Q: What sequence folds into this?
C-alpha cells in the first residue's frame, strides 16, 4: 500500500483539507476529526460521503426561490381578487427592484390611494419619481417623509430630497 501512496499524494491532502475545512465550519461530532486525521484520505472520503454529500440535497431548496418576475405575476393575479394596499405596496417594491420604475410608481399610487398612513409608500414613490426624472412630483412625497421622520431610510430620504431640489434648480 505504501508503494501506491505517492500516486495519490496531492489529492489525498486536498481531500483531507476539504474535509477539515467543512468540519471547522459545520462542527459535527468530534470523532470525525480523528477519522479525517488518522485514516488520511480514506477517512476524508468517508467523512465527505457521510456528512457533506447528504447536505448537497439541501442546497437545491436554496436555489429554488421564487423569481422576482414570477412573484410579480402572482401578485398581479392576487390583486385582481384582493386589491389591498399591502399587495400594491409589495408589487411596487418588487417592480422597483426589477427596474420597472413607472409600474412601481403606479403601484405605490394605488397603495397610497387605499391607505394614506405609511411613510414607506410615499418615500418609495418619491424615489421612483426622482429616478424617472420627475423631481417636481417627488418633492411632496419626500418632504412629507422627511417632515415626519427626518432620518428615514438611514438618512437617505433627506439626501434624496436635497437631490430633488437640486434637479428642480437645474431645470429652472
A:
Amino acid at each position: 500500500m505504501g508503494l501506491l501512496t505517492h500516486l495519490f499524494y496531492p489529492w489525498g491532502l486536498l481531500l483531507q483539507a476539504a474535509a477539515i475545512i467543512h468540519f471547522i465550519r459545520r462542527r459535527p461530532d468530534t470523532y470525525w476529526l480523528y477519522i479525517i486525521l488518522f485514516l488520511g484520505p480514506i477517512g476524508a472520503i468517508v467523512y465527505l460521503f457521510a456528512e457533506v454529500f447528504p447536505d448537497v440535497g439541501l442546497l437545491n431548496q436554496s436555489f429554488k426561490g421564487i423569481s422576482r418576475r414570477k412573484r410579480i405575476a402572482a401578485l398581479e393575479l392576487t390583486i385582481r381578487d384582493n386589491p389591498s394596499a399591502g399587495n400594491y405596496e409589495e408589487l411596487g417594491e418588487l417592480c422597483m427592484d426589477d427596474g420597472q420604475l413607472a409600474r412601481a410608481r403606479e403601484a405605490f399610487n394605488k397603495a397610497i390611494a387605499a391607505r394614506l398612513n405609511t411613510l414607506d409608500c410615499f418615500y418609495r414613490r418619491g424615489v421612483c419619481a426622482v429616478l424617472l426624472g420627475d423631481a417636481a412630483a417627488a418633492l411632496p412625497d419626500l418632504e412629507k417623509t422627511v417632515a415626519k421622520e427626518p432620518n428615514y431610510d438611514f438618512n437617505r430620504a433627506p439626501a434624496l430630497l436635497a437631490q430633488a431640489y437640486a434637479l428642480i434648480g437645474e431645470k429652472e
Remarks:
- The mean pLDDT is 87.
- The CA atoms of residues 1 and 7 lie 11 Å apart.
- The longest helix spans residues 31-62.
- Helices lie at 9-26, 31-62, 68-81, 85-98, 101-114, 119-131, 135-148, 152-171.
